[in-house]
Structures
1.
Amino acid sequence: MTLGLANISARGARAGLTIAALGLVAVLAGCLGPAAAPSGGLAPGLVTPISSEGAQMDRGAALGLINQYRSVRGVSALSADTTLNAQAQAVAAQYAATGTAPSRPSGASVMQLSAGYENFAETFSGWRNNRTDADALATSGASKAGLAVVYAPNSSYGTHWVLLMAP
């Protein structure tokens, strides 16, 4: 069988992308340490569905995933901040209630919003795969972060995610 050069190049590109994706998953899973699932997958707190009222995200695991990404991008880790967590919770509640992107609170230099993703791993992937959002995650001047999610069963998207970062 003879394959054209274009077919070989396409297969090589697909194989390279697959290898790169598997490598990133392995790096991220390995960096989560003891919280990672025994199977080598992501920590349970990153893949737990937020699809019922009162469901909680694992802020520590989520911040760990963000910090691993920041490390890969060459910027320093963020520390959890209770004030930013409270602000993020208020923003997420407003976002869920109105369905409209709220304004960034004063003191926050970055605000990442997302809606409709069932868990944090999906939310993070959405941010990481969008160049603008990915660059915002890697903002070098940020040193602290707050995370929140609100589930609103009667809203168009259900879950509303917020990440706030500040110097």
Note: The beta strands are 79-80, 110-115, 144-151, 159-166.
2.
Amino acid sequence: MNHLKTLRPAAFALLGVLGLTISSAQAQLTVNMIQNPVNAGLAVDAALTPYFDGTKIPTQSQLDQFLAIESALLNGTENNALAFLNQVTPGLYTELPTILFNSANIQNTQIQQRLWAVRAGMANDPRVSDGQGDGNSASLQGKKVVAPVVEPEQKWVTFVDGNGIWSQAQSINNLPGYNTYGGGVQIGASREITKDLSFGPYIGYQGTRVSYNTINGGNSAATINSLRYGLFSEFRKGGWYTDGIIGGAYNSANVTHGYNLPGYSAQANGTTAGGEFDTMLGTGYEFKAGKLTFGPMSSLQYTYLQLGSVSEKNAGILNQNINSQNAASVLGTLGGQAHYDINLTQSVILQPYGSFAWQHEFMQNNYNVGSQILGQNYNFQTMNPGRDQFIAGIGGNLVFSKSISAYAVANLINGDQKIFSQAISGGINWKF
């Protein structure tokens, strides 16, 4: 029981070192950087108070953990103490929505680029380019009129495609920076309902691994699994086209929440899951100048997602209960794209492709997430995400015949909140 006397110095060490850190660096720290660790530190201090006054008696494992944390803090630096308090906050959980929004944006872009590949291939379909196949044309050979062979109409387009995504985000407002890498696959089909309108479903899987770096990350990591599904359509009239997507996803994340101080480390495990709703409307116009096709494009996409509450395990007194999150994004895109036809053989055409666009986030804002540690509640305030980013694409489409084509595109995204993403996608389209 005499060891209980060491608990109050431990709590005051947490808050005292934090206070020194804030006072010495207040000119450089933002409100979020100060308030979030302060709230966490106050919650820890309030949680320890019942043990100070004898209302509660700690178990031996709790006592050992108290003493280990105290020793690491007192023997460490101010930066170590502030990093530990930032590790205590649920900041890494609040970065999951931004990671998922980025994944949804890349996959919507992938669907739009696949639709471009289908349009580009159709423009070189002999049935379209030579006027045959409508049942009305004929050719004259001498005195005999010969009707052309009319091939069966192809109304279905099926596809399978895959992607790889890599992202890096630097630490902002003391949130841990992170690296992500993942991959996925999609399959689907569309059917021409009328001459200019096609419509169909898609379904796919996306897996993402997140590694939180910097000292505030505490060697944390997350694994995200997403089942994506929906419907897409395209309307074409002359050079105009309009693309639409409506769908959703089920996302689940397994998080390893790490605490890492010189002389002390622990890992909490948490799981969260929830649904996602996605919709996108895009339009553009394609001009033709010989073998060059180019034009402007724009889109507006809305994403809403919910992640359930978290009850962490395996970290003793550092386990937290974190409330559910709800977040929404409205992302506008404005840019242009172009491709050029290169005839490799009489029937095989290569179409190099390039695009560039500016994207602006209209909706995603900061919000409070409630958390509980050692029975004490406190609020964590998320940060505002980046508002503007640029996305550049380069790749191509290879048309083997009027029935089969394959495409591949690499996209680079550079955001104003030090977020950089790269994605490579490719697939095969089969018309029948």
Note: The CA atoms of residues 358 and 390 lie 5 Å apart.
3.
Amino acid sequence: MSSFFVAMPARGRWWWAVVALAASLTLSACDVQGERELVPGHSTEADVRQRFGQPEAVWDGPDGTRIYEFNRQPAGHRNFMATIGADGRLVRFEQVLTPANFERVQAGMPMESVRRMLGKPMQVTPYPLKGETHYDWRYLDGPNPSDSKIFTVVFDKDLRVASTQHTRDPALDRN
């Protein structure tokens, strides 16, 4: 915990926690509204940027498409990928932190492929003595904030997938 919060009276810490939660919920509500307003084949790259801002990353896709990543980690539970066609129109917009995508992560897969599939993780933790690096993504495994979980991909020393795991979000146990 930062010294700013430790030095603050308990009542002040509570207030800042409420403000942070409200900001997170507002961003989530904006994302949902933005998703509803985007129409594949009709919405443009400019429409996507107007609703979601600057992408975290942009990758070249097949047939002249570009894939824009809109990251909501570490506090959020979603990462979005928008595929923009060569004509500048939205082809697909999807939330990528899903069980189906987690199942696609296979042993031996390179880190770059996982990163492009799931977006930027909320946390990267190296374990040099074990020769491992853990990438963690926060996601919801149900409709409620109490359904928050962490999906971890364990990479070996060559940054290839060694294993994966799902755990309860430890942030739920803080307070």
Note: The beta strands are 57-60, 66-71, 79-84, 90-95, 123-127, 132-140, 148-155, 161-168.
